[in-house]
Protein 1
Amino acid sequence: MATPILQISGLTMDFGGIRALNRLDLDVHAGEIVALIGPNGAGKTTFFNCLTGIYTPTAGEILLTPPGSARSVSLKGLKPNQVTEKGLARTFQNIRLFSQMTVLENVMIGRHCRTKAFILGAVFRNAATRREEREIVEMSYAILDKVGLAHLANEFARNLPYGAQRRLEIARALATEPFLLLLDEPAAGMNPQETQDLDRLIKEISTDGHSILLIEHDMKLVMSLSDRIFVMDYGKKIAQGKPAEIRSNPAVIKAYLGEDVDA
């Protein structure tokens, strides 16, 4: 089997005397959509924060391997911007847009880690800098078109409906050119139509060649999207498998999915 693009081994995170993550193992392969589920307080967002450099894990290893590469890089101890540069981007459970900026400007900011112009280029506006700025605008419009927001490019982010703000966060993450996209409860607060649109968008993003790791409480969405599912409780992994396996796991059904799942 090919090397996973993300390999988590023995990941542990302590906050004083509280162990939020307890020797967690998880992997994601190229082209996969993998879901991480569990009750509130299970440690899912803490796990994402360890992956993206917000927290430095107490122990364990986080290895990222770009598709087609034989060389892995450890993300442990890297800062969030360094993690993004390696090809991993995320959205947040609580929307974190720049509300006073336009929709287009929010996506353009996501391009910052891929730009080459420095202070002198910004001051003297040489040909290379102007060309790069045009490319940033064009790529940002293309991403907005993909997520269905191109017609709102000049609207302030704060004026968007809730579901559109969620899609804008995904667009900004895509602007960093990740090969692995982390989505933290992307369907939270969405109505059924918005969730259906999100399902379609995530599948399109996956078809475009992105691998996806998502945290989500909407089990219908999880079962529809996921190639594999990992289940957490109290910082530990208690189950993993394909959706049908998780659906039929008695402990998981009882603890997380209810007695009956309408998939």
Note: Residues 127-146 form the longest helix (20 residues).
Protein 2
Amino acid sequence: MNLGDLGAEIIKVEKPGSGDDTRSWGPPFVGTESVYFLSVNRNKKSIAINMKKAKGAKIIKELAAVCDVLVENYVPGKLAGMGLGYDDINTVAPHIIYCSITGYGQTGPKFQQAGYDSVAAAVSGLLHITGPEGGEPVRPGVAMTDLATGLYAYGAIMAALLQRHKTGKGMHLDCNLLSSQVACLTYIASNFLNCRTESIRWGTAHASIVPYQAFRTKDGYIVVGAGNNQQFATVCKVLSFPEIIHDPKYKNNQQRVINRKELIGILSARFLEKETSKWLDHFEGSGVPYGPINSMKQVFSDPQVSYLGNTFTWCMFFKIFNYYHRHYYLSNVSYICYLFSENSKQLNFIPSSR
């Protein structure tokens, strides 16, 4: 979708009959269209091809010859068995950037296992560190491993296109859920690799920064983070705790981490005294990072979200205009959501060049 946002023409190849599995994921639906499917298929034209048949494989190769990038997410070896692996495509399209997105990569002891977001999140350790302290592992509310892998693939494709501009040659990119999520472990992984420190679940809190978490208020929650001593002093002033600023137990972040339980207990009791809106007013202009935990209704009514334009980008999928061809415009960028196999008839062409 990001490549499409930048102006690329995206052609999504689906299986004849039912199409992409996510077309049936719901409710909710807009008419007969899965809202989940619409949310992740912006800018993608749709064609239906049976790649298991020689005619279908031939069409894929013809498309590859006139396209810049091919993205596939089959189990390694599956496309090669159809004559559509990287070596096969490279023969007819040596310029192609062939990006494979899998669960576990192209080689190794697990490379032929299927991969889903939650499974990769579990194997990579993300679920081990996500959830309430002392509680059960929790899946993030959205498919963060899928999203991270897509963004890594997006960056790799852009870099590969630049490399091809210099060399004239394409390449095979290996992007996978496991590697992407392990890379996203950042300091959690570094803590273990360098100090053999096993991480635990902290809920909304941070293992190495205190205070940096959600606090319950009289009617909701607010997240406050103090990443340095000056910010901590400001938090104490906002909460009317000037005496805590100079307490030796909280004089720096290291001491605050050591004395986390006592400090968080003090702060939590104070936050419960007022409504979220009151605390937001108190922190306004303080220089301390803060914000409420918003519902979806609150997110899309937030003035900053509206100002940045995100609402328009998302809302285009949730209103039925011309149901047979949805076409929207935002900041001179065209956003389209196509019906299943809508563009299949457009394949009757004989391309002369890329």
Note: The radius of gyration is 25 Å.
Protein 3
Amino acid sequence: MSTTNEYAPFNLTKSIRQSPPLDFSIPYSESWLSGKHILITGGASGFGEGFARRWAAAGASIVVGDINEKLGTSTVASIRLETKNENVWFVKCDVCDWDAQVQMFKEAVRLSPHKGIDVVVANAGIAGTDPMQMPVVRNGEVQKPNLKILEVDLIGVMYTSHLAFHYLPNNPGSLDCSVNANPENASFKRDRLLLLTGSVASLGPIANQPQYGTAKHGVLGLFRCLRGSSFVQGVRVNLLCPYFIETPIVPAEARLLMAGAAYGKVEDVVEAATRLTADSRILGRSVVIGPKVRVKQEDSGDWKFVGFGPGEGGEEKAIWEAYAEDWEDSEVFTRRMVVLLNIVQKARGWLGALSDIVKVFAGR
């Protein structure tokens, strides 16, 4: 029996245009990527290379941004040869350098078949020995620490995201994101997506890697904030949180500590990213990608590990949704802010749309 004092949650998922929880049994087609123009930072190796290779094969045009010119050039040449897709380019970029990122975005627009960017993947990241807990003292003075990991993995992502919120809404011919999009309809293929690469370190502590953990927590915070307001610009924001995956970013000491443990696979990260990118119905969702295991779901909703091999029964999974319930309840500030954002979006109406069109043709 309910009472007048019974608490009722303030669910804002519809107000922020968030799509329903992910159902990985629903099929999607990577052909939905065809015709999209995609900018990927950190695209010369690892996840970024995997994204570029698969998406180019599906008919997307790709700009690979990376600081490693030699590797980036050879990666693009390899992708072109393998996929027979000539619309794949390399642009050298240090993501910590604001001016370099500005030039990368401008070049991505210049190279675009339709002179706009449909998808921005903020993927560049590094790891390594972290000096945070190892202060260096010279002549009695503590020296300034090297915060390069934090700068690349968080500040670089913030720069990329900031630029994305200029270029995505000003993308000619693209549509506002919508949970009612039909990606099989050609007119819905070109929407606007910012895809962030976080980590399992976004979700919990990572020993002896405070910069990396801080940065990836920051990327998660960025995602959780942006997905509550990005609908105003018609941009959908999704997040990848890979577990330890065998890529160049995993340093030797981490591989030693992980000896005997199960790694995730690059192909599973690429599969998750492809679904989040190709399916324009997915708005404001994050996934964790880990080792492929077999599990059974209990009546409580919890998943029970049953083994690795097909003979163990259960369901094989490597991709899981995280932070699915953020907006199913909200406190008063957020609730009132979302209401205000919806009023702003409605007030812009045709005037706002015309203003955006004028900016595009004015080159702003």
Note: Residues 16 and 112 are 30 Å apart (CA to CA).
